[in-house]
Design a protein that fits this description.
Blueprint (H helix, E strand, L loop, with lengths): L2 E14 L3 E7 L4 E6 L17 E8 L6 E11 L7 H13 L7 H15 L5 H15 L18 E5 L4 E4 H4 L8 H12 L5 H7 L4 H15 L4 H10 L1
Helix pairs in contact: 1-3, 1-8, 2-3, 3-7
Length: about 240
């Protein structure tokens, strides 16, 4: 059996049997579940290692059958301040659920770590990073909104909102009263958000402030177009209202 050293982000920990847990981790090239034996015991040396919202260095043992096994490791950074705010914590668990729809990469790893770090430090850019993660899901899943004009009639002026069911910009006439009117600033911000390259995303976050409502909007978009009910999102929406 092969042992592997990994740098990983701890996304979720689920109890398994009496004192074991199945831990979901994200690395720069994979998302995987590992078996952490005995970590629910107060005497476990690895107990602090498997806390959600931690950056860790771990050694695991690959097995022919079943989950890879956690052997040992150390915590490089624990973003524990996330747990002090229920809304921040809930949003980060929504992000953990989004990993299912992402192909891991250096960029995805960076976005998750940056998002956790921003929430940990109470940095206003945290929501921007969360939106960038949602954007990656939208791009990778092929559900990018239509921004070249009204998705219903094609006109390029008097655009007033984004129709989730319709799939993009809507003009005043085609919208009617179905969706709330969005400000021109919001429409331009969303357009820029999707058109800007990865190399300039940091510049965008420095200039434009995103909010939790922006994140919830794009999560509604993802949930509708993937036809996937996120229970974590339902909880976040309930405490945000």
């Amino acid at each position: 059996m092969t042992t592997i050293e990994l740098e990983a982000l701890i996304l979720q920990t689920q109890p398994y049997k009496e004192k074991d847990a199945i831990v979901t981790i994200l690395t720069k090239d994979k998302k995987m579940n590992i078996l952490a034996r005995g970590i629910l015991s107060k005497q476990s040396k690895n107990r602090s290692l498997m806390q959600p919202f931690s950056l860790v260095s771990i050694t695991i043992q690959e097995r022919a059958r079943g989950f890879s096994l956690l052997l040992y490791g150390n915590v490089k950074k624990y973003y524990f301040h996330i747990l002090e705010d229920l809304e921040d914590q809930s949003l980060c668990f929504v992000l953990s659920d989004l990993v299912t729809f992402l192909k891991p990469s250096d960029e995805i790893f960076f976005l998750y770590q940056s998002c956790w770090s921003a929430f940990h430090q109470k940095d206003a850019k945290a929501y921007g990073y969360a939106c960038l993660i949602a954007k990656q899901v939208i791009i990778q899943q092929g559900i990018v909104p239509y921004f070249d004009g009204c998705v219903s009639c094609g006109r390029t002026n008097r655009l007033t909102t984004i129709g989730i069911k319709e799939g993009g910009f809507l003009c005043t006439a085609c919208n009617g009263y179905r969706y709330p009117t969005l400000s021109k600033e919001t429409l331009v911000r969303y357009l820029s958000f999707f058109r800007i390259s990865s190399a300039h995303q940091q510049d965008l976050l420095e200039k434009v402030q995103f909010t939790i409502d922006d994140f919830l909007f794009w999560m509604d978009w993802i949930q509708y177009h993937l036809d996937y009910p996120f229970k974590s999102l339902t909880f976040l929406q309930s405490i945000h209202e």
